[in-house]
Amino acid sequence: QPITTDMATLTQDVQKFAREKKIEIETLKIREEYRREFLGNVSHELKTPLFTVQGYLSTLLDGAMNDKTIRKKYLERAEKGVERLIHIVKDLDMITKLEAGDLNLDFTRFNIVDVVQNVFDLLEMKADEKNIMLMFDMKYTKPIMVWADEEKIQQVLTNLVMNSIKHGKENGTTEISIEDLVNNKIIVRVTDNGEGIQKQYIPRLFERFFRVDKSGARSEGGSGLGLSIVKHIIEAHHQKIYVESKYGYGSEFSFTLEKAE
Ligand code: ADP
């Protein structure tokens, strides 16, 4: 077939092609930047506990092993470091799956009151270390059935309660309350009277690896991924998450869930 394209059309096509390529390159650049940043954050997070473990093991091998009390203490600390690493790797695994949309939710009908009880049982010891009282209003004697992925919701509550303990005051409180909303929904609130969060940080809380206090939080053993995991899980359920906080007074994280008959 003869080529009948005129010069103007040809120029237009070339320009269109160039535009598309430019967008493609920009997208690739953003993705590359994202990957680089993610890897940078990951190695940064892993470094601290790895060096801690290495430090204790080297000291043991250098002779500390001969002292029975020190041996036990250092081995326990090294073990803590390894636990920390496992925690970070698990969080990384979860966030990678959540961000890729690879996480299938396993919806069932379950009693959220039981999940609150499980989470409190799991974290009771942690709370006791700071003498923090875990409270759940006794009015919830009846089951509250919801439709969601039970394991994931337990993780959401665990992360939120864990944060409220980490950032809670000695002798403080963490309270979970549940309230009915319209449209067959409930809202679950986790409230603490701890350190609170300054206004300017609130919009960034759910970002991966974001921490208000870079040094302090690290010693408490978080991965900086807790809240971003929470947000992803709630959004995968097509539900909403909210935060309210007053610096110096405390914070409240809340999320909605679908009720089940
Ligand atoms: P981390 O692993 O550091 O706990 P998260 O994603 O769970 O990471 O939380 C991000 C940051 O949000 C924390 O480092 C902390 O600064 C702040 N934060 C989260 N929950 C609370 C809370 N209940 N009270 C005060 N600050 C909080």
Automatic annotation (TrEMBL):
This is histidine kinase. The keyword Kinase applies. One of its GO terms (biological process) is cellular response to phosphate starvation. It catalyses: ATP + protein L-histidine = ADP + protein N-phospho-L-histidine. Its EC number is 2.7.13.3. It comes from the Bacteria. GO terms for cellular component: plasma membrane. GO terms for molecular function: phosphoprotein phosphatase activity; phosphorelay sensor kinase activity.
